[in-house]
Amino acid sequence: TSDHLRHVDSMGTLPSGTGKISYLNAVILGDSLASEENDLVLPSPEFSSQALIPSSDKYIEMYRRSIVDPAGFWSEIASLFYWKQKWSDQVYSENMDVRKGPINIEWFKGGITNVCFNALDRNVQAGLGAKTAIYWEGNEPGQDGSLTYTDLLERVCQLANYLKDIGVGKGDAVVIYLPMLMELPIAMLACARIAAVHSVVFAGFSAESLAQRITDCKPKAVITCNAVCRGSKVIHLKDIVDTALVESAKNGVSVDVCLTYENQSAMKRETTNWMEGRDAWWQDTVPKFPTTCDVEWVDAEDPLFLLYTSGSTGKPKGVLHTTGGFMVYTATTFKYAFDYKLSDIYWCTADCGWITGHSYVTYGPLLNGATVIVFEGAPNYPDPGRCWDIVDKYKVTLFYTAPTLVRSLMREGNEYVTRYSRKSLRVLGSVGEPINPSAWRWFFNVVGDSRCPISDTWWQTETGGFMITPLPGAWPLKPGSATFPFFGVQPVIVDDKGTELEGECSGYLCVKSSWPGAFRTLYGDHERYETTYFKPFPGYYFSGDGCSRDKDGYHWLTGRVDDVINVSGHRIGSAEVESALVSHPQCAEAAVVGVEHEVKGQAIYAFVTLVEGVPYSEELRKSLVATVRNQIGAFAAPDNIHWAPGLPKTRSGKIMRRILRKIASRQLDELGDTSTLADPSVVDQLIALRDC
Ligand code: PRX
């Protein structure tokens, strides 16, 4: 059994707390403000009594079963979905140990199903046809729309028929480059219906990044819109796609169809650049197709989607998720972590361009028959009260967001929050990076009026769904801790040598044995999958995160331990930014590190060595930043460019980022041993130039 299970077994139950948890600082939700670092925030008896998992006893019972009998536990849950044909007797098979051969994970193999059918047809058949599936809120207050489950099914079928008509079939890739319009989840579901593999690219990525992804997955079609308003800015997405398609064609990948939605509030079709023969207006073509479309039934292990994410080295990786396990896992985690009830109105502020929007805007909630909000605009437009305006407008009960948004709104003062009622809110959620206790308390005390538990969900693009998360109603919370593993998840904390640490400890976060939502490979590069995730600590999946466990068994995520930088919850590889910088003709070398940032969590800090003879200038600094914007996207732009006559390297030529991180964060008395550097004087030069 896992360390966590042993720990869970030795713990007491709530609320008497006879076990290891100390209740000295405990507050009951709604009774008092969460204020101290070591507060335990207990669910109120009213909340717990109505919760799906009403006590730690219930959690322990279910968790225990999920670890002792994963096959039984997950097949019971999977049976709640529609399967055209049930999976084989073996519910799952896995090899997560590189020493025993290729890494291989399968769940519900042989089972025949379809995720779109389960999210839409099944819910309509169950009587939810007239229920609102999506409320859409545009950039401007007052711009809105909605679709019932029946409407959504019809729209999805029309697009699915269109895609089939242009020749998209099972296993073909479709790239989706759309902002948060209803057409984005529609496009994802239409692909799922016909077993095409969608690859959504966040519409903040540059043409170059889009081209790179198109080149890698070779889509049959690209789906986009002509433009989008973000706050007061208009962004011409179709132009970005046009440039990307020219670029990918140079790499030998030409795309035959570019389906373009006319986003009239942002741009009229007359002013949109057009390529006859390739481009088609969504509004002119899709509505002509029938509103019913047969489902393409697929094996549980057939691919559902690809999503590119950043690693510490090299180009972005295409994380591949398959059908059955992802469906069962996202739906189940959604249900329990948010204590979902049919009457809930759910809003996740993430964009569908990231994994959160896949698992917890589109699939998880719709599989549960939930009503979701899709918000196109910016949370601080027209003012920083917009989120709470939307919460009141739609009577949102479950609100899921990122710490960076919490911190940025916290800076604007409580007035923007308290002028709205927020009475409907029931559960809050956080994702993307560790939430610092002060932001947690503000979210809890001010936004949630000390009434609503916060589910701080730790997970990753690779994990498909929540891995470590509170289950509101079951456990006391600690501000800043993601608490305990979800059912079936066995987190372990290991030291440098891969030895599992017990009890109170701190180290690298790994996971022992598979869970249904796990990614199955990196598209076209299974070797990189094994090397990155399974070789560092043989026998385990390695997350890339640091973590500590406290005396009560709570997990505290401490951030990435590799060269991945987390800016506003967006994952950026230092190598990608470095390669963008060195593509600038005047840049000879670059090294990029993350530094702490009050709102963004981390900011990008770049050390740049210029080509011999090129002088430093403000203009050059701007042009370097612009290069990163153009090559990756605005969200990856460095906040700092630090001129570097040389970089600290070992004698074998390896850049010592540890030293660069200390210089960037001005911790000059913590530089450590610099004697192993090929040229230790480089460090003094860097320090001298730090404010230039
Ligand atoms: O470092 C962890 C951080 O985000 C990384 C995963 O990023 P991505 O694949 O883009 O997925 C983001 C949304 C799931 C993790 O390796 N992270 C995510 N959630 C948390 C977190 N760190 C601490 N606490 C969290 N709740």
Automatic annotation (TrEMBL):
<keyword id="KW-0067">ATP-binding</keyword>
<dbReference type="Pfam" id="PF13193">
    <property type="entry name" value="AMP-binding_C"/>
</dbReference>
<dbReference type="InterPro" id="IPR025110">
    <property type="entry name" value="AMP-bd_C"/>
</dbReference>
<keyword id="KW-0547">Nucleotide-binding</keyword>
<dbReference type="GO" id="GO:0003987">
    <property type="term" value="F:acetate-CoA ligase activity"/>
</dbReference>
<dbReference type="GO" id="GO:0005524">
    <property type="term" value="F:ATP binding"/>
</dbReference>
<dbReference type="InterPro" id="IPR020845">
    <property type="entry name" value="AMP-binding_CS"/>
</dbReference>
<comment type="similarity">
    <text>Belongs to the ATP-dependent AMP-binding enzyme family.</text>
</comment>
<dbReference type="InterPro" id="IPR045851">
    <property type="entry name" value="AMP-bd_C_sf"/>
</dbReference>
<dbReference type="GO" id="GO:0016208">
    <property type="term" value="F:AMP binding"/>
</dbReference>
<feature type="domain" description="AMP-dependent synthetase/ligase">
    <location>
        <begin position="129"/>
        <end position="514"/>
    </location>
</feature>
<dbReference type="InterPro" id="IPR011904">
    <property type="entry name" value="Ac_CoA_lig"/>
</dbReference>
<dbReference type="Pfam" id="PF16177">
    <property type="entry name" value="ACAS_N"/>
</dbReference>
<dbReference type="InterPro" id="IPR042099">
    <property type="entry name" value="ANL_N_sf"/>
</dbReference>
<dbReference type="InterPro" id="IPR032387">
    <property type="entry name" value="ACAS_N"/>
</dbReference>
<feature type="domain" description="Acetyl-coenzyme A synthetase N-terminal">
    <location>
        <begin position="59"/>
        <end position="119"/>
    </location>
</feature>
<dbReference type="GO" id="GO:0019427">
    <property type="term" value="P:acetyl-CoA biosynthetic process from acetate"/>
</dbReference>
<keyword id="KW-0436">Ligase</keyword>
<dbReference type="Pfam" id="PF00501">
    <property type="entry name" value="AMP-binding"/>
</dbReference>
<protein>
    <recommendedName>
        <fullName>Acetyl-coenzyme A synthetase</fullName>
        <ecNumber>6.2.1.1</ecNumber>
    </recommendedName>
</protein>
<feature type="domain" description="AMP-binding enzyme C-terminal">
    <location>
        <begin position="576"/>
        <end position="654"/>
    </location>
</feature>
<dbReference type="InterPro" id="IPR000873">
    <property type="entry name" value="AMP-dep_synth/lig_dom"/>
</dbReference>
